[in-house]
Amino acid sequence: MAYLLMFVTLLHLITLAILFIATMEKSWWVWEGMENSDLWYNCRFDNFTGTWLCASSKETEWLQAVQVLMVLSVVFSSVSFVVFLGQLFTMSKGGLFYFTGLCQVFAGLAAFSAALIYTLHKEEILQDSRELTSGRFGYCFILAWVCVPLLLCSGVIYIHLRKKE
């Protein structure tokens, strides 16, 4: 039982870290030639100064939906972890971690919705950027998709997990 508890806690922390990186880093869409776009900024690498020059992304309804859903996913997963720690020390023997599991499932569904919206509406989201055919999805986009099954699986595990002493 102790190993399962450590596994679930470690899975939750890893998923939360990946989710946070996917939300905050600057690589949802990458073009050849040192240019990328994320949920917040469009950035170009300036070879002369050796720095990244970033400008705010143009706010579209689809981009705002992706931003909100990714932030909501991070919030749900963070609340889930805090509630799990609280339940671990206060819940009676035999209790189930329903609320923790539901928060994780909601975080997974929010991340799924955000990644799906970005996949289907990348043309509208990146409308004022360079030609999309010379670009590809970046690692943060892939991390968001990796988080979806991890969040859903950990949510299901939490729902079935019982506290034993």
From TrEMBL:
Q: Name one GO cellular component term.
A: plasma membrane
Where is the protein found, in the record's own terms?
A: Membrane
Per the record's keyword annotation, is Transmembrane included, yes or no? yes
Q: Where are the transmembrane segments?
A: 6-24, 68-89, 95-118, 139-161
Superkingdom to which the source organism belongs: Eukaryota
Q: How does it sit in the membrane?
A: Multi-pass membrane protein
One Pfam family name from the record? PMP22_Claudin
Q: Which InterPro entries match?
A: PMP-22/EMP/MP20-like (IPR050579), PMP22/EMP/MP20/Claudin (IPR004031), PMP22_EMP_MP20 (IPR004032)
Chief subcellular location:
membrane
Q: Which UniProt keywords apply?
A: Glycoprotein, Membrane, Transmembrane, Transmembrane helix
Function field? Probably involved in cell proliferation and cell-cell interactions.
What family is it from?
Belongs to the PMP-22/EMP/MP20 family.
| Classification via PANTHER family | EPITHELIAL MEMBRANE PROTEIN 3, EPITHELIAL MEMBRANE PROTEIN-RELATED
Query: What name does this protein carry?
Result: Epithelial membrane protein 3
